[in-house]
Amino acid sequence: MMGSDIQRGLLWILLGLSGAMLIDKWQVYNGRPSFFGIEPPAQVQTVEKTENAVPTPPTPTPSVAVPAPATAPVTSMHKENLIEVETDLARLTFDPDGAVIVRSELLKEKQQIPWVDTGLAGLVLGNKVPPPKDEILFQDRPPRVYLAQTGLIGGDFPNHKTPMKLVPGPLKLEDGQNSLSVKFEGESGGVKLVKTYTFERNHYSIKVQHDIYNNSQADITPSVYYQLERDGEKPEGQSSMINSFTGAAVYSEEEKFQKITFSNIKDQNKDFEKVANNGWVGMIQHYFVSAWVPTEGVQRENYTRPLGENLYAVGTIVPAGIVPAGGSTSAQATLYSGPQDQERLEQVAPGLSLVVDYGWLTFIAKPIYWILTMLHSLVRNWGWSIILLTCIVKAILYPLSLAGYKSMARMKDLGPRMKALKEKFGDDKQAMNQAVMQLYKTEKINPVGGCLPILLQLPVFLALYWVLLASVELRDAPWMLWITDLAAPDPWFILPAIMIFTMWIQYKLNPTPPDPMQAKLMMFMPFIFGIMFIFFPSGLVLYWLTNNILSIIQQYVVNKQIEKDRLRRQRN
């Protein structure tokens, strides 16, 4: 019946939304591309580190082949001469062979605890909440391999497998100290390389300098390579149903942000900007990124390559120019390895904040994130920021919402007349529809007026979903009481339960569909969506719950006004 178009519209919109999101998750879960433009990682099972290769430089620089070990390689973490460096934000482990970063422990970021281990689910399943652990990015414990490597190519020069010596000096950033420099030096083929890692307080970015000394009897033309090596698996503990991107990326001013999946690297079938004098290369995973940023304006060549079974590399090669015999030169770059904090990323390099992937709704999600950060700067709580954002959206849509609520209130007021029309026309649906349309016209009711505000809010709802999914600032962000992580589901299912109650009130405030089957479906809809929202981030449920409460208030006020108008007309 036309009198129930609003309820049907709401039902189909919400069912379509939830269906699309569930199908999209199923697509990614099965290794197929996301409908929202986020590509799944390569599905490869094992890591076989057959060759820790030095990159092949662009012609005409001659390539350098590093001999593979005769026996199975020993992982760096089993060596006894590893060097540990600690700052205020991270604890890093260096392998003196190549001065490679083989482990990084982020001291301010904790690994997320599976929500089924917490709250009501953990209580029912008997799961215990494990103690929080620091987030680990770089590591060298197969099958987890994630390394930051540098070296020289173009001759028999020191590379990321050359034994290097630690220059004596402090290895910890002490209180009151703003920077810390750690140096390594090694020599090969008459060329000495000094690597200097400089750490700054409250910064995840590391300044890396290569000082090249030509102690040979001939001129040399070395190039410095900056490489990230990683296995092709999702981060440990991440749900297979979260379709965030895991893979490599290249950025340049010419081609902007380009994502490269591990399958692209394996098949070498992805076009990206290979020659540039700006930009960066990186490895991306949910909430975190590592990126090499060479000096702006310096020519470089970007590359990707498979290194073995389920082992991939992305890097960039920067020519160091001609170094005469007895001469020296230097090359600088920045290594960022840490959370995808957009404010930090924008300070490191242009375009680096683009690793925060909001999918195809970026054009809406970016403003929403900006508004949320502005609100957060005022209230210092992401939960209250989401509530204020909901109020702002409702205020903007108020004129449209008011028209829709008036239409629904008037339709509810027409209940007895609709019932009379049904008794008059019986099973003659065509005549019934014509009579209903005439009644709407006479009473100046728009039967679909209530759908427009819902349609306009759906992009906001979806965009907020991606903001909650991708923004590390909301990771582990508490609201109050039992809500300690707005990016995770409500551990006690309280918000979904309250949302069911508010949807039930909305159902009672709206006109009941004349069709009994439709009426039953609308009656069960709050419970259907309440169960579905159990698995959504609690911040998203908070948004929808706040929207429901505001809608109930608006609908109640409009209903009362319509009732007063009807009584006034009856008295007159």
Keywords:
single chain, 572 residues, nine-stranded antiparallel β-sheet, six-stranded antiparallel β-sheet, 13 helices, 19 strands, elongated
What is the topological layout?
Layout: H1 5-29, E1 83-86, E2 90-95, E3 100-110, H2 119-125, E4 134-136, E5 139-141, E6 144-153, E7 165-166, E8 179-188, E9 191-200, E10 205-214, E11 223-231, E12 247-252, E13 256-260, H3 262-267, E14 275-276, E15 280-285, E16 288-294, E17 300-308, E18 311-319, E19 328-339, H4 342-348, H5 362-379, H6 382-396, H7 398-413, H8 415-425, H9 429-443, H10 451-470, H11 494-509, H12 516-533, H13 538-571
Helix pairs in contact: 1-10, 1-12, 5-6, 5-10, 6-13, 7-13, 8-9, 10-13, 11-12, 11-13
Describe the fold and architecture:
By secondary structure, the protein is of the alpha+beta class. The strands form 3 sheets. It has a 9-stranded antiparallel β-sheet with strand order 7-8-9-10-19-16-15-12-13. Strand 8 and strand 9 form a beta hairpin. The protein starts with a helix and ends with a helix.
Counting DSSP E segments of at least 2 residues, the number of strands comes to 19
Rg value: 30 Å
State the share of residues found in helices, binned by percent: 25-40%
Structural class: alpha+beta
| Strand line-up in the sheet with most strands | 7-8-9-10-19-16-15-12-13
Give the overall shape, derived from the CA principal axes.
Answer: elongated
- Distance between termini? 32 Å
Biggest sheet record? 9 strands, antiparallel
Report the sheet-strand fraction.
15-25%
Low-confidence stretches: 1-13, 21-51, 57-74
Mean pLDDT comes to 80
Count of individual helical segments = 13
